[in-house]
Design brief:
Blueprint lengths: L8 H17 L14 H9 L8 E3 L1 H10 L10 E17 L7 H8 L7 E5 L5 H13 L3 E5 L3 H9 L5 E5 L3 H7 L3 E6 L26 E9 L4 H15 L2 H8 L4 E2 L5 H21 L6
Parallel strand pairs: 3-4, 3-5
Antiparallel strand pairs: 1-7, 2-5, 2-6, 2-7, 2-8
Helix pairs in contact: 1-8, 3-10
Length: 293
């Protein structure tokens, strides 16, 4: 179950692994797309299905942790799911409009702190999204007011940034950013974390600057089932996922999306990762005073 329409990053990731999963499990694996409510509609459908492992959710923190914190109408909880294991790791990058007078994160912070200056605007794919959290956290950490501009998706956000209507955004890396930067439609200011990534090694990491330390955002996608799924079924699905992610053709397909194949984790390690992510974002929601809408 993919919580977004066909053609998006989540859909492409699912279709990168479903044939190999089918081979490992010895039965067909179909990809179903169901968008809406920040991914919550698809998540609810998984929770309404029998806990027998036949419906598996390709989820991320956005759908099962953040959307319930931001959308008062969404009643699901992250602890209703069991993470079988991550599929991809997606480093995040800061993109800026082409004529923003800043070439690094330090220069952006200095610009944001300019006395009497107009607050910088940052775009996200919606209220309560990971990218909204990151922007609010940045604003709080550097002590400068910033204007959040929510969009219904990444495409209109990038279009407005190309037109100079929004100053910056922090988003997971996608291969299209390289082309947009080469065309002069936006700038890649830096990686939101401690290190440079191979997709754009010329872009500095935030940690290389002097004004903002220990600021790191990335995201991931993973396979989840209802928490009531029998252990034997979860172990079978986990093994199929682990073997799938070891296949060279699967790794190459994932890399071609601009994502990185996730490192193998045990079920216990995945559970600890999932719980830690939930605790981190719940604490951040309180710190930035996020109000469910």
């Amino acid at each position: 179950m993919v919580p977004y329409p066909a053609g998006g990053l989540s859909d492409v990731i699912a279709r990168s692994i479903h044939l190999s999963l089918s081979k490992q499990l010895g039965q067909p694996v179909l990809v179903e797309n169901l968008g809406g409510a920040g991914g919550a509609i698809a998540a609810q459908k998984v929770l309404a299905a029998p806990a027998d492992g036949h419906m598996v959710f390709l989820g991320s923190p956005n759908e099962v942790i953040l959307t319930p914190l931001a959308n008062a109408a969404v009643k699901l909880r992250h602890d209703q799911f069991r993470l079988l294991g991550p599929v991809t790791f997606n480093p995040m990058v800061l993109l800026a409009r082409k004529d923003l007078p800043a070439q690094s994160i330090d220069e952006l912070i200095t610009l944001a702190r300019t006395p009497g200056g107009k607050p910088l605007s940052y775009g996200s794919v919606g209220y309560g999204s990971l990218y909204h959290f990151a922007g609010e956290d940045l604003s709080t950490r550097v002590g400068a007011a910033m204007l959040h501009v929510p969009y219904k998706g990444g495409a209109p956000l990038l279009q407005d940034m190309g037109a100079g209507l929004v100053d910056f955004t922090m988003m997971p890396w996608a291969t299209m950013y390289r082309g947009l930067a080469d065309q002069g439609r936006l700038k890649i200011l830096g990686w939101v974390g401690p290190r440079r990534e191979k997709f754009a090694p010329e872009a500095p990491a935030f940690a290389e600057g002097k004004l903002l330390k220990d600021f790191e955002y990335s995201t991931w996608a993973g396979l989840m089932v209802r928490k009531e799924t029998p252990d034997a079924t979860a172990v079978c699905l986990h093994q199929a996922l682990t073997t799938t992610l070891e296949q060279p053709e699967v790794q190459q397909a994932i890399l071609s999306t601009g994502s990185m194949p996730a490192a193998a984790r045990t079920l216990n390690e995945s559970a600890k990762q999932f719980a830690a992510e939930a605790a981190r974002f719940q604490a951040l929601a309180k710190r930035i005073n996020l109000q469910p809408q």
